[in-house]
Amino acid sequence: MRYYELEYGCDNKEVGSQYPQVWDFIKGYSPENEDNGVCSLYYDYNPLFPPIDPDLSGFKLANGAQYTDFLSNGFGNRLFFLSENAKRFMEDQNLDIHRFYKGRVTSLRKKRVEDYYVMKIVSGNWQYLDFPNCEFYISDADTDDIIPIKFNSPEEFIKKENEFLAEEEKSYTIRASTIKMTDAFYKKKLDMFMIDECNFDWYVSERFVEEYYKKKLTGLEFEPIDI
What we know:
Elements: E1 2-8, E2 22-25, E3 59-61, E4 70-71, E5 79-82, H1 84-91, E6 98-107, E7 112-121, E8 135-140, E9 146-149, H2 154-166, E10 172-178, H3 183-186, E11 192-194, E12 202-204, H4 206-214, E13 220-226
């Protein structure tokens, strides 16, 4: 089925010359506060959502970057910076579990402050992989070796992954190079999703892309892919 890989625009007139557009903070903001700063949204700290809304008022637009509806950011690929128009657009999409938080992005160069929303989305669909028809490989970070491997079920995948985790001195990871999904996945009719576990890109539906361009939103690019 035809989907699109979601990517941020980079180094063009629309988004500006800096990538990511947001990666730093204004003076006085404390991102490391795991209870109230942006770190409270990090997946490693909290796989779901923080119990209280974090303070997201201290983001700074990079010099040379432009404000767009979707801002590229340096805070993990599970966080999306959205304008009001982008938020309304996302509210109309069929998404995995997610939550919106109010934030602000300041351009010191332009002396301008814009309200944005930060959306955290928790998406993992690896269990819907059509394992016999996917192509996997093992990547060894120590040697750069790429070794093809076959899995016929989620259970085989988890078994091998656990074996690697038990080898503390090894740095193996499993990745999927060709992705095919089961019918059960297509019945979910998601407009945006991540596979997780073996592939950490974001994919969107044709409906997502058509509506994005119809609403003349900015900041994203799309590459067609068969899944």
